Amino acid sequence: MRLFSNIISGMFHPLLMVTYGVILALSFTYLAIYPPTMKLFLVGGAFLSTAVIPGLFIFLMVKNGAAGDLELSDRKERVVPYLIIITSIMVCIFYMYKMMLPFWFLSLLMGSCVALLIALFINFFWKISAHALGVGGLLGGIMGVARIHLINPYWGFIIVLLAAGLVGTSRIFLKRHTPMQVYAGFCLGFICTFVASLLSYIYLFI
After folding, report:
1. Please, how many CA atoms are within 13 Å of residue 134, restricted to the half-sphere of its CB?
2. What is the pTM for the complete model shown?
3. Of 80, 128, 179, 197, which sits 20 to 30 A from 187 (CA to CA)?
4. pLDDT for position 6
């Protein structure tokens, strides 16, 4: 069970959530009409900017003794990684803007940044679950986009809901977080991206 929990935690690591979100957007919305080469550039750019580069920074922090482990178990060690991840998502937003992605897509990334900023503030006092925040943000984005575009990506809902349950259970089983830390992270991520998607819809009529 411990091995399975570690695998789940790795598969749904917070650094991978933006990449998964891009893949889902390119699969279940009208962005699916993009040619394969365009999709590859979008997914590759998201993966490089929000997973590879911040992941490398965190690895170097651990190697140089600035962090105890890759899980960043110590709450005090999470401040710099949070700032790195927020910066990486802002770089991704600029990249997607240059690739002429629609505003609702960019707003989801902005919502992720807001969620991370709030989590950074909370982190000074309490250790909130970044894994739950990531998967909650992914689900909030899916539900928000489904609402404003009147689509029903049921496979996306099923996959992410199952992932959310597995991630939350795994983090609690591994004793990385308490149930309340997992619930709080999930709700924060969900609310920020869901509200961001709705605000992007309102913005179109201003």
Report:
1. 26
2. 0.90
3. 80
4. 79
